Amino acid sequence: MRKISDWGNYPVIEAEVNGFDTTEQLKRQLEQPGEVIAFGNGRSYGDASLQHKILLTRRFSKFLSFDATTGELCCQAGVLLAEILDVFVPRGWFLPVTPGTKLITVGGAIAADVHGKNHHVDGSFGQHIQSMEVMRNDGSVVTCSPTENAEFFNVTVGGMGLSGIILNATFRLRKIETAYIKEETVRASNLEEIMDGFEASDNWTYSVAWIDCLAKGDSLGRSILMRGEHASETDLIEQAQRAKPLAAKKGLKLGVPIDFPNFALNPLSMKAFNCAYYNKTRPGTHTNVVDYNSFFYPLDAVDNWNRIYGKRGFTQYQFVIPKEAGREGMRKILTRITESGLGSFLAVLKLFGEQDSFMSFPMAGYTLALDFPISVKAMELFKELDAMVADYGGRLYLAKDSRMDAAMFEKTYPNADEFRQAIAMLNEGETKFASLQSKRIGITG
Ligand SMILES: Cc1cc2nc3c(=O)[nH]c(=O)nc-3n(C[C@H](O)[C@H](O)[C@H](O)COP(=O)(O)OP(=O)(O)OC[C@H]3O[C@@H](n4cnc5c(N)ncnc54)[C@H](O)[C@@H]3O)c2cc1C
Question: Which of 98, 113, 115, 401 is most buried by its number of CB atoms within 10 A?
């Protein structure tokens, strides 16, 4: 038994933790009595990959095939996105979709159906999966794709590990000329301006905004919009970039050596940080060529940044509300958050495109993600925010969640009931795959 948690360090549990190198080993582990859940790299924030028996997938991490003409890659599910980038960026290929950290596994990317800054153009990670193999509770292996065993495929993409253990997946990488991004940053002085900015950014491949949730009144929603495109060789300015266009820049790695005391994150220190960050970007529009790590993964440059929130841990409240409800809904929810004074150290705003998947989080609308240190007050606030999100027809992201109740899940995920039935059927009466989250929100008993 050992102590284990996901990225938010809340909850922390004692669990029996086992890895596997081969499908035979995995099969033998599934034959043991008791419920289990797959654990990729623990970058979900709450309890989605926690259970008293955990199957670590990281050792199951081989590249199986690559077609250099089409970019089609097949790899085992324990491979990290960072490992794919290390091998394939120098050869001129990039991921079709990437979240704000590259330290997640392919299995975790499929099970949470992760989204990136290009959701409005390219959809979610699961929409790029051409086929995959999944081990079920009885040790049998199902090959599935959008056309083969499609129902099983649909409950596995975004299914949070409850249909089985994803073994491998095939998807297509995107051709790139350089390891750089042509970035444009635009300072927006309030919510209206940032939403106008997003709505005028449809033709950009990547767009995201950092939003200062502590700003109030006329400045409510003041933000920095970042838009980007993969740079071509002719876009590169510096001699060093031109000499090695596909060489990724290795940034300075910083670390957070200890858990921060809880008082370090009081509203004053957060306000000072947010103010400094906002003022770092001058008013107007600025263009720059930056390496892909700085554009996509600024947080990965700080090891263990999650420890900054102290021993009590933290959670991320990420919701989406439909585009029609966006302006009014976002204004009301943001106002409530700023009024609460609980603030958020980091808040990310993004406009999603259409998505019609069975269990995935994205829908055409605005999504906001905010970090909160765990406290009784924050938990009370989340209840209020939940009611607002549900009233506007929105929902919460399971990959970030550690506290939503079953009623909220039922109300906001239209296929919740069908998903529950599908998982019960796959388990044939006896649950094998379950997480603390799936029990809390009533998917498994
Ligand atoms: C700094 C940071 C930024 C992030 N930014 C984004 C973002 O921009 N967009 C976004 O969508 N997400 C984002 N995330 C969330 C993260 O991408 C997801 O939570 C992802 O699922 C984590 O993958 P993991 O490999 O760490 O899996 P874990 O967190 O260990 O597990 C996540 C889920 O996947 C299941 N799972 C893992 N492997 C398998 C497998 N082989 N078979 C079956 N099920 C499996 C687990 O059971 C669990 O339900 C961010 C997280 C962090 C820490």
Answer: 115
pLDDT digits (tens, 9 = 90+) for 335-385: 999 889 786 656 899 999 999 999 999 999 999 999 999 999 999 999 999
Which residues partner with 396 through β-bridges?
319
Look at ligand 1, atom 48, and give the residue with the nearest C-alpha. Answer: 49
DSSP-assigned letter for residue 361: S
Q: What is the DSSP letter of 80?
A: B
- What's the predicted TM-score (pTM) here? 0.96
Tokens of 204: 């950009």
Cα–Cα distances (Å) from 204 to 118, 152, 172, 261, in that order, read: 8, 34, 21, 41
Overall domain count for the chain: 2
Which residue, by CA, sits nearest to atom 15 of ligand 1? 44
- Decide whether any atom of ligand 1 lies within 6 Å of the 71 Cβ: no
Rg (C-alpha) for the chain, rounded Å, is 21
Which atom belonging to ligand 1 lies closest to the Cα atom of 103? 26
For residues 34 and 423, the answer to whether their CB atoms sit within 8 Å is no
Exposure class string for 222-235: b at 16+ Cβ within 10 A, else e: bbbbbbbebbeeeb
Is 172 in the same domain as 248?
no
Q: Among the three residues 125, 145, 176, which one is the final residue of a domain in this structure?
A: 176
Structure tokens at 414: 């239209």
In this predicted structure, the answer to whether residue 274 has a pLDDT above a threshold of 60 is no
Check whether residue 281 and residue 138 sit in a common domain: no
Q: Is 116 exposed, middle or buried (0-12, 13-18, 19+ CB in 10 A)?
A: buried
User: What is the 106 CA–ligand 1 centroid distance (Å)?
Assistant: 9
Report CA torsion sign: 438, 75, 62, 103. Answer: negative
Does 199 fall in a domain?
yes
Q: State which residues form the domain around 83.
A: 63-154+161-176
Cα 23 to middle of ligand 1, angstroms: 22
Are residues 148 and 228 located together in one domain of the fold? no
Peptide bond into 11 cis (omega under 30): yes
Per-residue pLDDT reduced to its tens digit, 106-131: 999 999 999 999 999 999 999 999 99
Written as six digits, the tokens of 406 are: 């079953």
Measured from the CB, is residue 320 less than 6 Å from ligand 1? Answer: no
Q: How many CA atoms does the CB half-sphere of 115 hold within 13 Å?
A: 34
* Helices 376-391 + 326-340 axis angle, to 10: 170
Contact 385, 319 (CB under 8 A): yes
Which stretches within 212-357 are classed as H helix? 239-243, 267-280, 292-296, 326-340
